[in-house]
Specification:
It comes from Rheinheimera pacifica. This is DUF2884 family protein. By secondary structure, the protein is an alpha+beta fold. The chain is built from four helices and ten strands; from the N terminus they run E-E-E-E-E-E-H-H-E-E-E-H-H-E. The chain has one domain. Strands 6-5-4-3-2-8-7 form a seven-stranded antiparallel β-sheet, covered by helices on one side. It is elongated, with a radius of gyration of 23 Å.
Length: 231
């Protein structure tokens, strides 16, 4: 199952996006606009539209939250390592590196208070995002960035009166432990997605059926097959 268009959910509206433009808008679960034109609805149409809108409102935020929470968990684990290490300028530089690296991933999932955005993608792609894209990227970022933290700390201590030295093996063991913590958290999010996948697919199939009924009754919507089953 897949979403063929971007979806924005807000308390009063649902917007179906294509190329960063709103093509379909549902207001208050019962008012429909297609390409900016108000569509007059019969009572049965309004009932179907409300079912469709409410289904999206229950479903999309849950998917977005799983993805966003996974990213935030990885970020918080990395940033916890920054606390108290290096100068304030170094800490700011490392945090900026982390946030720049994750910005491109998070363009696919946005959660801001009670507003949600989901980019076009399938459930399989979301699973791939957590397993095969986010985890390796955070892993590499953690090893590069936190390795630099330990390197800076080691160099500073080597030049101090204490003549403290830490072996590279000890450095990477500490970094590895932190990376393991990040991966455990991301694995938990992936497992949560897997556990809910059957329910998600069932909900999407139900939404797909409602959408097909709406398209039969409202030809204006036939161009916007939002929920689809991948062949």
């Amino acid at each position: 199952m897949a979403f063929a268009h971007g979806i924005i959910i807000s308390p009063d509206q649902i917007r179906i996006m294509q190329n960063n433009r709103t093509h379909v808008q549902i207001n208050a679960d019962h008012q429909l606009f297609v390409r900016g034109e108000w569509v007059t609805l019969e009572d049965d149409d309004t009932l179907l539209l409300a079912q469709y809108s409410q289904g999206l409102r229950r479903f999309v935020p849950e998917i977005v939250s799983i993805a966003v929470d996974g990213v935030e968990l990885g970020l918080s684990s990395i940033e916890a390592m920054f606390s108290g290490i290096g100068s304030q300028a170094q800490q700011a530089e490392w945090r900026e590196l982390v946030r720049e690296t994750t910005f491109q991933w998070m363009s696919r999932f946005v959660r801001s208070n009670d507003h949600f955005y989901l980019a076009p993608q399938s459930l399989n792609e979301l699973d791939y995002f957590l397993h095969d894209e986010l985890k390796p990227q955070l892993d590499n970022l953690a090893r590069h960035t936190v390795g630099a933290v330990w390197g800076a700390l080691r160099d500073a201590l080597r030049h101090s009166d204490s003549n403290f030295e830490r072996s590279d093996n000890q450095d990477w063991q500490s970094v590895g432990q932190m990376v393991d913590k990040i991966n455990l958290g991301l694995d938990a999010k992936a497992v949560e997605l897997e556990e809910k996948s059957a329910l998600f697919c069932q909900r999407m199939q139900e939404l797909d059926e409602i959408e097909k009924q709406l398209q039969q009754r409202l030809p204006e919507l036939k161009r916007y097959d939002v929920v689809s089953q991948k062949q």
